[in-house]
Amino acid sequence: MLASLFAIGLAPLLATAQLSGSVGPTTSYASKADNKICSVLDYGGVADNSTDVGPAISSAWDECKDGGVVYIPPGDYALDSWVTLTGGSSCAINLDGIIYRTGTDGGNMIFIEHTTDFELLSSTSEGAVQGFGYVYHADGSISGPRILRLYEVVDFSVHDLALVDSPSFHFSMDTCENGEVYNMIIRGGNEGGLDGIDVWSTNIWIHDVEVTNKDECVTVKSPAQNILVESIYCNWSGGCAMGSLSTGVNISDITYRNIYTWSSNQMYMIKSNGGDGSVSNVLLENFIGHGNAYSLDVDQEWSSMSTVDGDGVQLNNITFSNWKGTEADGAQRGPIKVNCADAAPCTDITIEDFAMWTEEGDYQWYWCESAYGEGACLEDGDDYTSYTTTVTVTAAPTGYSAATMASDLTAAFGTGSPIPIPAIPTSFYPGLTPYSALASAAATSVYPVRA
Ligand SMILES: *[C@@H]1O[C@H](CO)[C@@H](O)[C@H](O)[C@H]1NC(C)=O
Ligand SMILES: *[C@@H]1O[C@H](CO)[C@@H](O)[C@H](O)[C@H]1NC(C)=O
Ligand SMILES: *[C@@H]1O[C@H](CO)[C@@H](O)[C@H](O)[C@H]1NC(C)=O
Ligand SMILES: *[C@@H]1O[C@H](CO)[C@@H](O)[C@H](O)[C@H]1NC(C)=O
Q1: Is 174 a catalytic residue?
Q2: Atom of ligand 2 at shortest distance to CA of 223?
Q3: Is 290 a catalytic site residue?
Q4: How does pLDDT run across 311-354, given as a tens digit for each residue?
Q5: Which listed residue (160, 198, 215, 253) is catalytic?
Q6: Which class in CATH covers the domain with range 237-408?
Q7: Whole-structure pTM over 0.85, yes or no?
Q8: Quick one: fold of 1-228?
Q9: Distance CA 342, CA 347 (A)
């Protein structure tokens, strides 16, 4: 019991009032391991990189899902048949090996559902899933499987894993609660449709994650409440976002902070086209960007999605604070674009401590449309009618310069050849160290594994 109190740690309590309660598993890994360990090697798994490990994972899960640890020891495993792991309670999966996709079904390679008090991790911080998405992408297809999906999982954590080159999305959290995701690296191909992390859930803390791809970095979808996203490194990505939002949208109490975005489509985008429902109480603070196309980008006439019924999603009480850095070409795509629905103007928008400047040319624009609040080109007042204002900025704002990360990618991973499995970084935002040390640095009493 002492071990369990110890292992869970106090960090979540310190995180912020943004969350609605504690996150993460409610009993420690050590206590689960103490109870029972089910190694896949005892259920037909072979670390020969060719025997399908899917059935062994499923059997080990069945034996250990009620209070134990499914253990995938270091080694190389082929995953030919996908696993759906259901109904766990007080259990963990320790992936210290590397799983290579060999199967070709659609769906989700690893799908975990209806599970409580759950931890998915690599205790060596070297576990990974290699999706070999390039095999699909080289042929122009993004319709292969996703790597990881959690559905109705409560009181959980996912950490210290690398998810690499998914044929489709990398990691989705659908209708989960009280989760913590941290110390992860996701590295996908350089094209759309290969999302990093997508979350539509309640009370989730995502921190210290690096994503490389060309679509969603860490993105909130509807419905979502009490999501805190911090220390995220979008190292050549699509960028973080909210959406795309459609009808019946219900999103509130979302904070992103300490977000570093390099060579992405945007630093943050809220995207919709028509629709209804609302997004409220959002704080987007401490953003650094370099080399991105868009920066602050609210687009409620987003042309990449077809118009859905409704006057527009109501955006209310959204604050952008302390954004610094440079955008690729501010004359082409200015660093502030707040394009709200004319039939449902945005209210209580704040843009403060915002200083960005263009890398190309000598001017940039700010664009505000049907958006009310304070800062940049926003209109104040409360008549909430539609308008459009574009402001041309011809001098660099004071204090725009911002730190870069030591090793920003200088070229994308393409889509035609394998993507190497990276190590998990130890910094995700300039000058910040992660909330938690890597699992590999923890005492063996925290993550005891079978010798
Ligand atoms: C495992 O098999 C995959 C092909 O499925 C291959 O690309 C990879 O290099 C192999 N891993 C090792 C360590 O040999
Ligand atoms: C939004 O979701 C919350 C949490 O599930 C719920 O309490 C609330 O009633 C929903 N609001 C609307 C308008 O559906
Ligand atoms: C606006 O949102 C912030 C969170 O970003 C919250 O702290 C504040 O209470 C909200 N204001 C109102 C009036 O709801
Ligand atoms: C960004 O990605 C590139 C390519 O994977 C890598 O070499 C670099 O180390 C990454 N940057 C950091 C700080 O992890």
Answers
A1: no
A2: 2
A3: yes
A4: 999 999 999 999 999 999 999 999 999 999 999 999 999 999 99
A5: 215
A6: mainly beta
A7: yes
A8: Pectate Lyase C-like (2.160.20)
A9: 12
